[in-house]
């Protein structure tokens, strides 16, 4: 709690699967009061994510949506390091999950590990995450609040910061890409309670 430990800060070096990184970030959601200092292992940069959300900037994401009749869930597709939109569409169709809205997020800077941080600054990942979390809240509040299905291709440090911003998102189902099978598999479920 921020009252017990003002200026509580954790340094995290996430060298793990993306679902595990999402679980770590979700553990340190904004309501814990903890600031995060993430070491992005590919470049050795420090990315900062304060417990107070960064000011959203809608101009840093290219966002598109699609609506599927009959579904109550929301799928969020983050194509940070590479475009995963087609593989996620194929998975949703084949798996039969009840997705009614799909939101595709791609950094305006393009699909690469360099599209977060670097010359864009240590707080860039937090602005991306805060902006995306706000957009997801808008969609969830405007529609049935089913499961949030989260697909991500990007650095684990970004996954931690994104999940930190997902307070009150309900049930979140994360997914991992399985190379040998060339598809996704459901991984960790995160609950806001």
Describe the structure.
The chain is α/β, with parallel strands linked by helices and 193 residues long. Strands 4-6-5-7-8-9 form a 6-stranded mixed beta sheet, sandwiched between helices. Strand 8 and strand 9 form a beta hairpin. Helix 1 runs parallel beside helix 4 and helix 3 packs across helix 4. The protein is globular, with a radius of gyration of 16 Å.
What are the defining features of this structure?
32% strand, single chain, 4 helices, globular, alpha/beta, 3-stranded mixed beta sheet, 193 residues, 25% helix, 6-stranded mixed beta sheet
Radius of gyration: 16 Å
**Could you state the order of secondary-structure elements as H and E?**
EHEEEEHEHEHEE
Query: Helix segment count?
Result: 4
Strand order of the largest sheet: 4-6-5-7-8-9
**Uncertain stretches:** none
* Residue share in helix: 25-40%
Set out the fold topology:
Elements: E1 9-12, H1 18-27, E2 35-40, E3 45-49, E4 61-67, E5 73-79, H2 85-95, E6 99-107, H3 124-142, E7 148-153, H4 156-164, E8 171-178, E9 183-191
Parallel strand pairs: 1-2, 5-6, 5-7, 7-8
Antiparallel strand pairs: 2-3, 4-6, 8-9
